[in-house]
């Protein structure tokens, strides 16, 4: 049975001033279709949704909608009445007995707010934060009975858990048609069966989710003469990570494995780990941040208690947790902006940190973009011999030659955030701490940022609700579950979501606290294990250098012999340290259990 057609656009054009955002666009949406929309900021994505919803009339062309079709839209700007209550917006005139027994209402409010209560429903809109207002609008849309929903950045202000819930909710509602604009590529891959790219006034359609879109872009670029070689390289590099990384281990990507293998057969990995580790060791030394028996509070609220944590050179760590769990507070404690209530936080003497906060730095509005960056530096060293000028770095992060002369006062929120990040990188830090760096970035800018961070040889700590970005740039993950503990997550974000889903069971079934007599010994063992891990990382760098040297000296037998002896000694040294690490780990496990 054919799917019912819901909406058609026929030769639709829409322009603002003299710029055509949509130029003779024809497309259609059928029942239950799931479509992701991508494109540069300002390229016409939101305009497309507004035209489809009837909010903006087209300049030319025709929009045909089936008579009984109900369409809902989540815009980036809300029009909520400040005096209304949450219940008025979400539930309308429904009587208590009508919505209280409605499973959909309970599920949506629980998924977006972690539960619902009279206190939540009776809150005034004027008392809500921007993120809470966003969730109220989204809840209203999901609870209502629509055939087609148009979502403009629905994952903004949602944490990793909320994004995962929303994706699952959409996938379960099999009759609902969805068109979504989002820079969250994990979400796109989960919910989309087709991608629309809005570019130069046209809408190009690609079958499959984001993974298939990346492959199709790369294949299309190979079949035609590619004028922009750098962009093609970024697409190929992104595809290499998609094929080798976490998404490739799921059944989600909808492209031919053989084609992907052929395309990336000679593609290098996104990051040369040995080069980055060597660069980090040379610039940072062995100590970045060491936390010993620390208690960290935000005002009177306890965030972390009795914390032991080491952040080493070259570490790339993603920090996840529920909103309000203390992720930003932890970063500020590392930076010394918050003093630990107890315990000690040590910062390495060679650390030169840069912090991208969620709050925009105030800059002189009369400065030009390039001028604002050059006031920090004219050249930046990224490591591994890579150097960029201020103008080149601006271009990498989405400021082309023309926009580099734009006054700061004329920039949008997303452009100001890009400028803030560019200025941070120009200062040549060796430790980057990023708090929600992907906010207001389009997919193309995110891909360029990821490519830039691949070259960064220092230590990277990232807080983000963008799961794709986290998995793309980070190698390790830690989580805050709101119980004053920081947990290592060897299983990554999947493990975090499982812990959150079973948080009560997890906390109650965790091992009993060690006896007081063992606490000191446990702490010393953890410190010892961290020391051994740093030693092993350092020896790994030595071994890699010696192996490279061995290849270069293939025809110099005397020097080759000496190098082989050094290599043998390093391998033996590593083995001895690994034995000590195993002994300490076994002992620690025995004490904790």
Q: Please, could you describe this protein's structure?
A:
The protein is globular. It is 44% helix and 21% strand. The strands form 5 sheets. Strands 5-6-7-3-8-9 form a 6-stranded mixed beta sheet, sandwiched between helices. With 593 residues, it is α/β, with parallel strands linked by helices. The N and C termini lie far apart (59 Å). Helix 9 (210-223) packs across helix 10 and helix 21 (516-552) packs antiparallel against helix 22 (557-592).
| Structure summary, number of beta strands | 20
Question: What is the mean predicted local confidence, pLDDT?
Answer: 82
What is the straight-line distance between the termini?
59 Å
| Beta-strand content | 15-25%
Structural class: alpha/beta
**CATH topology category name of the largest domain:** Rossmann fold
Task: Quickly describe the structure.
The protein is of the alpha/beta class. The chain is 44% helix and 21% strand. Mean pLDDT is 82; it is low at 246-256 and 504-517.
């Amino acid at each position: 049975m054919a799917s019912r057609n819901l909406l058609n656009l026929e030769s639709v054009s829409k322009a603002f001033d003299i710029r055509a955002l949509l130029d003779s666009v024809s497309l259609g949406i059928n029942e239950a279709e799931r479509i992701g929309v991508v494109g540069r900021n300002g390229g016409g994505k939101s305009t497309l949704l507004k035209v489809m919803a009837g909010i903006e009339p087209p300049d030319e062309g025709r929009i045909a909608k089936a008579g009984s079709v109900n369409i809902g839209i989540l815009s980036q700007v809300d029009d909520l009445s400040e005096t209304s209550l949450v219940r008025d917006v979400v539930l309308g005139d429904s009587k208590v007995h009508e919505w209280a027994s409605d499973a959909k209402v309970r599920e949506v409010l629980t998924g977006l707010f972690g539960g619902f209560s009279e206190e939540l429903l009776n809150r005034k809109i004027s008392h809500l934060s921007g993120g809470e207002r966003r969730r109220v609008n989204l809840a209203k849309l999901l609870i209502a009975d629509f055939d087609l929903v148009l979502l403009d950045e629905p994952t903004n202000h949602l944490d990793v858990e909320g994004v995962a819930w929303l994706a699952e909710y959409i996938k379960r509602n099999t009759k609902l048609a969805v068109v979504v604009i989002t820079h969250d590529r994990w979400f796109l891959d989960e919910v989309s069966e087709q991608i629309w790219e809005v570019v130069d006034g046209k809408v190009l359609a690609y079958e499959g989710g984001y993974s298939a879109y990346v492959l199709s872009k790369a294949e299309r670029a190979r079949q035609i003469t590619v004028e922009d070689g750098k962009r093609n390289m970024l697409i190929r590099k992104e595809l290499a990570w998609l094929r080798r990384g976490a998404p490739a281990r799921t059944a989600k990507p909808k492209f031919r494995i053989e084609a992907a293998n052929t395309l990336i057969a000679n593609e290098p990995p996104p990051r040369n780990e040995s080069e980055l580790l060597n660069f980090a060791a040379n610039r940072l030394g062995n100590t970045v941040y060491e936390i010993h028996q620390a208690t960290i509070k935000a005002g009177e609220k306890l965030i972390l208690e009795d914390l032991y944590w080491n952040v080493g050179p070259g570490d790339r760590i993603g920090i996840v947790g529920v909103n309000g769990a203390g992720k930003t507070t932890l970063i500020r404690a590392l930076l010394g902006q918050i003093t630990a209530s107890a315990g000690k936080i040590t910062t390495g003497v060679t650390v030169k940190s840069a912090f991208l906060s969620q709050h925009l730095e105030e800059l002189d509005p009369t400065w030009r973009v390039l001028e604002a960056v050059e006031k920090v530096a004219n050249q930046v060293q990224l490591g591994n011999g890579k150097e960029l000028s201020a103008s080149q770095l601006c271009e990498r992060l989405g400021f082309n030659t023309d926009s580099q002369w734009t006054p700061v006062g004329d920039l949008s929120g997303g452009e100001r955030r890009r400028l803030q990040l560019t200025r941070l990188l120009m200062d040549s830090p060796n430790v980057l701490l990023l708090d929600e760096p992907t906010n207001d970035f389009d997919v193309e800018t995110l891909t360029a940022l990821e490519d830039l961070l691949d070259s960064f040889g220092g230590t990277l700590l990232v807080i983000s609700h963008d799961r794709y970005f986290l998995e793309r740039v980070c190698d390790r993950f830690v989580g805050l579950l709101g119980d004053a503990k920081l947990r290592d997550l060897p299983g990554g974000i999947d493990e975090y979501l499982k812990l959150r889903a079973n948080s009560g069971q997890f906390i109650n079934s965790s091992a009993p606290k060690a006896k007081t007599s063992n606490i000191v010994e446990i702490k010393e063992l953890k410190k010892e294990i961290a020391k051994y891990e740093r030693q092993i990382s350092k020896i790994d760098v030595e071994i890699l250098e010696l192996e490279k040297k061995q290849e270069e000296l293939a025809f110099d037998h005397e020097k080759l012999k000496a190098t082989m002896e050094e290599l043998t000694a390093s391998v033996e040294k590593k083995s001895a340290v690994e034995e000590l690490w195993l002994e300490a780990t076994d002992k620690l496990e025995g004490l904790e259990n």
